[in-house]
Fold this protein.
Amino acid sequence: MKYLIYPIIICLIMLVNVSTATANTPEIDLKHYKKIDLPYTSNDITKYYYWEDEASGLHISPNPKMPFRFSTKELSYQPKLARFFVNCPLYFPTIYFHYKNITYKGVIFMIFADNDEPIFYFQLNSYDRKGNFIDAIILDERFSAEGEALVWSDFKIQTNGQIIVNQMEQILIDDDMKFKNGDIYFLKKNIYKMSSTGVFKKIKETTINDDRHN
Protein backbone atom coordinates (compact mmCIF):
# COMPACT_ATOMS: atom_id res chain seq x y z
CA MET A 1 0.00 0.00 0.00
CA LYS A 2 1.39 3.37 -0.97
CA TYR A 3 -0.22 6.76 -0.82
CA LEU A 4 1.26 10.22 -0.84
CA ILE A 5 -0.21 13.45 0.41
CA TYR A 6 1.37 16.79 -0.46
CA PRO A 7 -0.48 19.70 1.14
CA ILE A 8 -0.65 22.87 -0.87
CA ILE A 9 -1.52 26.35 0.19
CA ILE A 10 -5.30 26.06 0.35
CA CYS A 11 -6.73 27.03 3.74
CA LEU A 12 -9.97 27.90 5.37
CA ILE A 13 -10.77 30.83 3.13
CA MET A 14 -14.37 29.70 2.95
CA LEU A 15 -15.18 32.46 5.40
CA VAL A 16 -15.87 35.80 3.83
CA ASN A 17 -15.08 37.88 6.89
CA VAL A 18 -11.60 37.34 8.26
CA SER A 19 -10.19 39.23 11.19
CA THR A 20 -7.08 41.12 10.13
CA ALA A 21 -5.93 41.36 13.72
CA THR A 22 -2.78 39.75 14.95
CA ALA A 23 -1.76 40.36 18.56
CA ASN A 24 -2.39 43.99 19.61
CA THR A 25 -1.09 43.50 23.12
CA PRO A 26 -0.61 40.23 25.01
CA GLU A 27 -3.53 41.06 27.32
CA ILE A 28 -5.97 41.93 24.53
CA ASP A 29 -4.91 38.94 22.46
CA LEU A 30 -5.52 36.45 25.29
CA LYS A 31 -9.16 37.51 25.52
CA HIS A 32 -9.77 35.41 22.42
CA TYR A 33 -8.46 32.27 24.17
CA LYS A 34 -9.71 30.14 27.07
CA LYS A 35 -7.33 29.74 29.99
CA ILE A 36 -6.71 26.11 30.95
CA ASP A 37 -4.85 24.17 33.60
CA LEU A 38 -2.48 21.33 32.80
CA PRO A 39 -2.57 18.48 31.99
CA TYR A 40 -4.16 18.95 28.56
CA THR A 41 -4.61 16.09 26.12
CA SER A 42 -5.85 15.19 22.65
CA ASN A 43 -9.17 14.21 24.24
CA ASP A 44 -9.71 17.88 25.06
CA ILE A 45 -9.60 19.00 21.42
CA THR A 46 -12.19 16.58 20.02
CA LYS A 47 -14.77 19.40 20.21
CA TYR A 48 -12.83 21.32 17.56
CA TYR A 49 -13.36 18.87 14.68
CA TYR A 50 -15.73 16.18 13.43
CA TRP A 51 -15.94 13.52 10.74
CA GLU A 52 -18.84 12.92 8.37
CA ASP A 53 -17.42 9.42 7.81
CA GLU A 54 -14.10 7.62 8.26
CA ALA A 55 -13.00 7.87 4.66
CA SER A 56 -13.52 11.61 4.23
CA GLY A 57 -15.41 14.61 5.48
CA LEU A 58 -13.11 15.99 8.18
CA HIS A 59 -14.30 19.42 9.29
CA ILE A 60 -13.55 22.06 11.87
CA SER A 61 -16.51 22.32 14.23
CA PRO A 62 -18.72 25.41 13.90
CA ASN A 63 -16.91 28.24 15.63
CA PRO A 64 -18.50 31.56 16.61
CA LYS A 65 -15.07 33.21 16.67
CA MET A 66 -13.57 34.96 13.68
CA PRO A 67 -10.38 33.48 12.27
CA PHE A 68 -7.17 35.45 12.80
CA ARG A 69 -4.11 35.89 10.64
CA PHE A 70 -0.71 34.58 11.68
CA SER A 71 1.97 37.24 11.95
CA THR A 72 4.66 37.25 9.28
CA LYS A 73 7.12 35.65 11.69
CA GLU A 74 4.66 32.95 12.74
CA LEU A 75 3.72 32.18 9.15
CA SER A 76 7.33 31.89 7.98
CA TYR A 77 8.21 29.45 10.76
CA GLN A 78 7.84 25.71 10.19
CA PRO A 79 6.57 24.15 13.44
CA LYS A 80 8.21 21.13 14.99
CA LEU A 81 6.63 17.69 14.30
CA ALA A 82 4.94 18.89 11.10
CA ARG A 83 4.86 16.04 8.56
CA PHE A 84 4.22 18.44 5.70
CA PHE A 85 5.04 21.99 4.73
CA VAL A 86 2.53 24.11 6.64
CA ASN A 87 1.65 27.53 5.24
CA CYS A 88 -1.87 28.49 6.24
CA PRO A 89 -2.35 32.20 7.01
CA LEU A 90 -5.51 31.76 9.09
CA TYR A 91 -6.22 30.16 12.45
CA PHE A 92 -8.83 29.96 15.19
CA PRO A 93 -7.66 30.70 18.77
CA THR A 94 -8.51 28.02 21.34
CA ILE A 95 -6.65 27.80 24.68
CA TYR A 96 -3.75 29.33 26.57
CA PHE A 97 -1.70 28.72 29.71
CA HIS A 98 1.47 29.99 31.37
CA TYR A 99 4.52 27.91 32.23
CA LYS A 100 7.79 29.31 33.61
CA ASN A 101 6.93 32.88 32.57
CA ILE A 102 6.21 31.78 29.00
CA THR A 103 2.74 32.05 27.45
CA TYR A 104 1.52 29.11 25.37
CA LYS A 105 -1.39 29.39 22.95
CA GLY A 106 -3.20 26.60 21.16
CA VAL A 107 -4.61 27.31 17.70
CA ILE A 108 -6.47 25.23 15.12
CA PHE A 109 -6.56 25.46 11.34
CA MET A 110 -7.07 23.29 8.29
CA ILE A 111 -5.33 22.89 4.95
CA PHE A 112 -6.14 20.69 1.96
CA ALA A 113 -3.84 18.29 0.17
CA ASP A 114 -3.48 18.32 -3.60
CA ASN A 115 -6.02 15.48 -3.69
CA ASP A 116 -8.48 17.67 -1.75
CA GLU A 117 -8.02 15.68 1.46
CA PRO A 118 -8.57 17.99 4.48
CA ILE A 119 -5.89 18.01 7.18
CA PHE A 120 -6.77 19.31 10.66
CA TYR A 121 -4.05 20.87 12.84
CA PHE A 122 -3.76 21.69 16.51
CA GLN A 123 -0.63 23.77 17.02
CA LEU A 124 0.95 25.06 20.24
CA ASN A 125 2.87 28.36 20.05
CA SER A 126 5.09 29.95 22.70
CA TYR A 127 5.54 33.68 23.42
CA ASP A 128 7.61 35.80 25.79
CA ARG A 129 6.19 38.37 28.24
CA LYS A 130 6.00 41.01 25.53
CA GLY A 131 4.03 38.74 23.23
CA ASN A 132 6.92 38.00 20.89
CA PHE A 133 6.68 34.68 19.09
CA ILE A 134 9.30 32.08 20.11
CA ASP A 135 8.50 28.58 18.87
CA ALA A 136 5.74 26.27 17.60
CA ILE A 137 4.96 22.57 17.63
CA ILE A 138 2.24 20.49 15.94
CA LEU A 139 0.42 18.37 18.52
CA ASP A 140 -2.19 16.92 16.17
CA GLU A 141 -2.08 16.50 12.40
CA ARG A 142 -5.24 14.56 11.54
CA PHE A 143 -6.35 13.31 8.13
CA SER A 144 -7.66 10.41 6.08
CA ALA A 145 -5.00 9.09 3.68
CA GLU A 146 -7.15 8.65 0.57
CA GLY A 147 -9.55 6.42 2.49
CA GLU A 148 -6.85 3.82 3.12
CA ALA A 149 -5.85 4.91 6.62
CA LEU A 150 -6.61 7.40 9.35
CA VAL A 151 -3.60 9.34 10.65
CA TRP A 152 -3.51 11.44 13.82
CA SER A 153 -1.55 12.19 16.99
CA ASP A 154 -2.38 11.44 20.61
CA PHE A 155 -0.74 14.04 22.84
CA LYS A 156 -0.50 15.08 26.46
CA ILE A 157 0.91 18.32 27.88
CA GLN A 158 1.96 17.36 31.39
CA THR A 159 2.24 19.49 34.52
CA ASN A 160 6.03 18.91 34.61
CA GLY A 161 6.44 20.65 31.25
CA GLN A 162 6.87 17.51 29.16
CA ILE A 163 4.83 17.05 26.00
CA ILE A 164 4.23 13.51 24.77
CA VAL A 165 3.12 13.17 21.15
CA ASN A 166 2.38 9.72 19.74
CA GLN A 167 1.86 9.74 15.98
CA MET A 168 -0.71 7.05 15.16
CA GLU A 169 -2.32 5.31 12.21
CA GLN A 170 -5.32 3.05 11.67
CA ILE A 171 -5.58 0.86 8.56
CA LEU A 172 -8.91 0.99 6.67
CA ILE A 173 -8.21 -1.55 3.88
CA ASP A 174 -7.58 -5.29 3.65
CA ASP A 175 -4.58 -5.49 1.32
CA ASP A 176 -1.85 -4.01 3.53
CA MET A 177 1.24 -6.23 3.73
CA LYS A 178 1.84 -5.69 7.45
CA PHE A 179 -1.44 -4.75 9.12
CA LYS A 180 -5.06 -5.75 8.73
CA ASN A 181 -8.18 -3.63 8.43
CA GLY A 182 -8.89 -1.86 11.72
CA ASP A 183 -5.40 -2.21 13.17
CA ILE A 184 -4.12 0.81 15.10
CA TYR A 185 -0.38 1.22 15.51
CA PHE A 186 2.32 3.74 16.42
CA LEU A 187 4.37 5.58 13.82
CA LYS A 188 6.54 7.59 16.22
CA LYS A 189 6.70 8.35 19.92
CA ASN A 190 7.98 11.86 20.69
CA ILE A 191 8.83 13.59 23.95
CA TYR A 192 9.46 17.35 24.09
CA LYS A 193 10.09 19.74 26.97
CA MET A 194 8.75 23.26 27.43
CA SER A 195 11.98 25.03 28.35
CA SER A 196 12.47 28.21 30.39
CA THR A 197 13.30 30.04 27.14
CA GLY A 198 10.06 28.98 25.45
CA VAL A 199 11.78 26.68 22.98
CA PHE A 200 10.29 23.19 22.59
CA LYS A 201 13.29 20.96 23.23
CA LYS A 202 13.31 17.41 21.90
CA ILE A 203 13.99 14.86 24.64
CA LYS A 204 13.38 11.64 22.74
CA GLU A 205 12.08 10.40 19.40
CA THR A 206 11.38 6.74 18.72
CA THR A 207 10.33 5.47 15.30
CA ILE A 208 8.09 2.42 15.65
CA ASN A 209 6.86 2.04 12.06
CA ASP A 210 7.69 3.88 8.84
CA ASP A 211 5.59 6.95 8.05
CA ARG A 212 4.36 6.39 4.50
CA HIS A 213 2.88 9.87 4.10
CA ASN A 214 6.09 11.93 3.89
